[in-house]
Structures are given as structure tokens and as C-alpha cells.
Design a protein that fits this description.
- This protein is mostly helical.
- The chain is built from nine helices and three strands.
- The protein has helices spanning 2-12, 24-27, 33-42, 56-65, 80-86, 100-111, 115-131, 139-147, 164-176, and strands at residues 18-22, 46-51, 71-74.
- A three-stranded parallel sheet has the order 1-2-3.
- Helix 3 (33-42) runs parallel beside helix 4, helix 5 runs parallel beside helix 6 and helix 8 crosses helix 9 (164-176).
Length: 180
Amino acid sequence: NGMYEYFKRVESKTDIPIVIYNVPGRTGVNINFHTTIRLANDCPGIIGIKEASGNLVQVSEIIRSAPEGFSLMSGEDALNLPYISCGAMGTISVTANILPLEVHNLVDFALNNNYQKAKEIHLELLEINQQLFIETNPIPVKHALYKMGKINSELRLPMYKLSDFNKDSLDATLRKYKLI
């Protein structure tokens, strides 16, 4: 009830559309299916959820029960294809920061029911998706963007640079994908 009341209050104080971000791995709290559907039904300003629980049953329940116009988007790059195959409308992606065309193509193929092509890209992206989460996001993706020459190497505490072991591992993967 506390989560419901919190998001309901936020929604009542603004007139901009809200997408809830459910990331229990970072927050320690899961916004469960029942709370999500209550919010979707009771708060017209809450238009969707970025789902990063990794719980395919919960994702499926939300998709099945959500009102018209409410969007579920994958917040878990390694699960983009399974989520979309269950009815997710797309992704809010970390991997797209370094491989935007590939993530776009995966989503486009999946949304257009070309699951064979989507599966090929999904499997191609499997390693980089895992590598971008070897430490707390956004540390690995910022390192990748730095190595690609896209940004300066800059983090604010409590974020800290990648460990040497993980840096070597990520750099090897970036080379494998011909990004550096």
C-alpha cells in the first residue's frame, strides 16, 4: 500500500506522463503485479512501467491485466526478446547506448513477429548484455562509452571505476564486438 500511495501522490502532483521503474535488484523492493495494475487503473498519468524484475510471470500478468494504453517495457536487456514475445511494447535499454542499431533491430523484428531474426540478434547480444552488468549500472556502460571515445571517464561517488579484472573482461568483449 505504501508504494501505491507514493506513486498515486506523485501522479496527482504532476501533469506529465509517468513511467514507473521497477528495479528490485537496485531498490530492494519489487513493485508487484497487483500494485502495478492498481496504479495503471487508478492513475491515468501513469502510462507504463519499465520492468526490470526479471520475473517473466509478473511481466506476463501485468501485460495480460493492464488497461488499454498502459505500456510495459523491458528494463532487462537480456530479457528483451522474452518480454516482447509476451507483449512488452519495447525496451528502455542500457545496451542501446553502445549498440543502438542492434537493439533497435531486435525490438523491431520482435514487434513485427519475425522471431527468428530477433532471436539471432538476441543471441548475438547475450555476452555484451551480461558484461554491461558485471558491476553496478552505469559503471560498465560508461566505461564502454569512454573506451569507444564517446564520453569522458567520469563517475560520481559512490560510483567507482571498474575493478581491473572486470575492466579487462569488458574490454575483451568490446574488442570482440569491434567496438574498440
